[in-house]
Structures are given as structure tokens and as C-alpha cells.
Amino acid sequence: MLRKLTFLAVSAVIAFGTLSFDLPQQSEDPGDRLIGIWEPSNGRSRIKIDRIGNKYYGRVVWLIESNDADGNPRTDINNPNPDLRNVPLRGFRMCKDFVYQGDDQWSEGTLYDPNNGSTYQGTITMRDMNTLDMRGYIGVEAIGRTDVWKRLKMPSRKKK
Amino acid sequence: MHEYSVNNLEFTLEGPLFAGPNGGQKAISINIADALGDAHVEGMRISDARLKSAAIFPNDSLGFTNVNAFVVAFASDNEDVSMQEAAVKNPLEVGATVANLEVSSDAELGEIMADGKVYVVLDADLAEDYWDGNRDFKLNFTLELTIK
């Protein structure tokens, strides 16, 4: 199980070229400090966390391997719901429904592993403005795995 | 079972937009009195909801240019209820003027709808960056509601 949980921090990391930090804009809601683009420790994906209503969600916005062996964009082929196996992995919300609890913690959410179609309970702890501990677990939080995510700076591109 | 349709729900994806997924959200209220008409009794609630159909239309002069795919999901402020993807169009055919989404029959939306306030989330996967403004789309969808 721990091996499965590894995927979490695992499959979701990103990097926009070089790693750099981008402090979010000031918000009156302390929970909004979570908003931004984050890179899991394996560097294979990047996750953009947004707010919808009073919850926070993380979408895959970049994958190091965005296409399958046939050259087609990867989709969520392991989703337990067959109707959703055609959903593109790039754009997939792998972090869902996190609620800010105060004290730099977000919980009540889930983390999804597209590698096996499993969903885990999750807790997010902000170590500092640029570092998150993402913990995935099943049932008992004490038994799980934590991955460290780093905040990324959006690339600055000139308007054409 | 009662059908409940929402039409011309407008989404603006605010630029600059980057290649890949770009999302928009709208909060709506499900008015079960509208669905039930004279049969509505105070205190009734949605006990089950399924998405029956969903279609997306362009709402600007760009049409579906450089749009690879759409996903529609529903979410609620209720901490006990998780966001649910309910429909997808992938890939979107080149030259399409309407995107008729493939609906997930397993997507159980009743708990999301139960409080009446629902967040409709539209994700568009773009093939290229778009720096020159916003992209606008309209969504029509029909729900099948069980109300008790």
C-alpha cells in the first residue's frame, strides 16, 4: 500500500524549466495561500491548485509524458468509472475538495492516483509559502505517505 | 423522475490562456419548485441526480479553434461531498460547431445538488497558448432529478 501511495507525490509533479518560487497575490482568505502551481518531488508533473466555492482543487497542467506509446494524449484509462476513461490526464483534477482548517492545514480532501485509479484521503500542510507536505492515506492518517511539493513560478512569456 | 434543464450558461476563460487545461466555473441554484410545478411541497429535497445530456457551444468569434477537449464537472460547498466529473468530449472533432458531450451514467450528482447551490466547472483543453483575450463558451445541460 505504501508503494501505491508513493505514486501520489509521485505522479503529480511538474517543473516549468527551472524551479523558481512565485509568491501568490495577497488574499484576505488565508486558505488562498494554497493557490498556485506546485511540483511534486518526482518532477514528472505540475499541479495547479485553484479554489472553487470554499474548497481547493488541484489539476494536472503539465506531464513529462503527456502522450501514450501511440503518440496520443494520455487519458485516465484506469478510472474505475469506464465512462470517464476518456478524460484527458492533462487537466485531470487529482486533488479534490480540500478545505482550509486553519494553522496552515487543508484536509477533508482526496488524492487520486491515475496510475492505478485509486483515491486516497489527503491532508495538506504548508511548511512555508513555497513548500507543501502532501499526505495520502487510507483510513488512518498515521499510515500513509507524505510527498513534498514546491511552488513554481509561472513562465513569463512575451505577448506575440 | 423530473428533468431539469439549464441553458446558455456562459463561461469565460480569462486570458492569457496557456496550452493545456483552462477552467471556468459558475455557481447556479437548482430550483426544484420549477421542476415540480404544482407538485412542489415545501421541504422537498433532491435525493438523486444524473446528468442526461450536455452540449457546449462557442460564444465568441473564435468558435472551437484550438480546443482539443472539454470536461464538465459539478461541485458543492458541502465538505462531505466530492466534486464529480460528469461529461467529457475528447477529442473534439475539427470543424465542430457544437460539442455534444459523452455523459457518465455512473456520475451520482444527488448529494452535490441536495443543497441547491451547485458549482458547474468547465475545463477546456487548448492546443496552443492564447494571449489576446478570453475564450467564451455556453453550456446547455439536462439533469434527471429524483425529488422527495
Main attributes?
heterodimer, A: 160 residues, mainly beta, Lipocalin, eight-stranded antiparallel barrel, disordered N terminus, B: 148 residues, five-stranded antiparallel beta sheet, four-stranded antiparallel beta sheet, 2 helices
SSE topology sketch:
The complex is a heterodimer of chains A (160) and B (148).
Chain A (H helix, E strand, L loop, with lengths): L1 H10 L24 E4 L5 E8 L2 E9 L29 E10 L2 E9 L4 E11 L2 E7 L6 E9 L8
Chain B lengths: L1 E12 L6 E10 L2 H5 L9 E13 L8 E9 L8 E6 L9 E2 L1 E2 L6 H4 L3 E10 L8 E13 L1
Antiparallel strand pairs in B: 1-9, 2-8, 3-6, 3-9, 4-5, 4-8, 5-7
Give a quick summary of the entry.
By secondary structure, chain A is mostly beta strands.
How would you describe what is shown here?
The complex is a heterodimer of chains A (160) and B (148). Chain A is mainly beta. Chain A has one domain: Lipocalin. Chain A is 6% helix and 42% strand. In chain A, a hairpin with a 6-residue loop joins strand 7 (131-137) and strand 8 (144-152). Chain A is globular and about 45 Å long. Chain B has a single domain (2-147), classed as Jelly Rolls. Helices cover 6% and strands 52% of the residues of chain B.
Largest sheet of chain B: 5 strands, antiparallel
Helical proportion of chain A, percent range: under 10%
Shape of chain B: elongated
Order of helical and strand elements of chain A = HEEEEEEEE
Helicity level of chain B, as a percent range?
A: under 10%
In the CATH scheme, what's the topology name of chain A? Answer: Lipocalin
User: Helix/strand/pairing class of chain A, anyone?
Assistant: mainly beta
Strand ordering within the main sheet of chain B = 2-8-4-5-7
Tell me, briefly, the overall form of chain A.
globular
Q: What is the terminal-to-terminal distance of chain A?
A: 48 Å
The main β sheet of chain A shows up as:
8 strands, antiparallel, barrel
Average pLDDT, all residues of chain A: 84
Listing every helix as H and every strand as E from the N terminus to the C terminus, the arrangement of chain B reads EEHEEEEEHEE
- Using only C-alpha atoms, the radius of gyration of chain A works out to 15 Å
Biggest interface pair, residues each? A-B, 30 and 34 residues
Number of helices of chain B: 2
Assembly classification: heterodimer
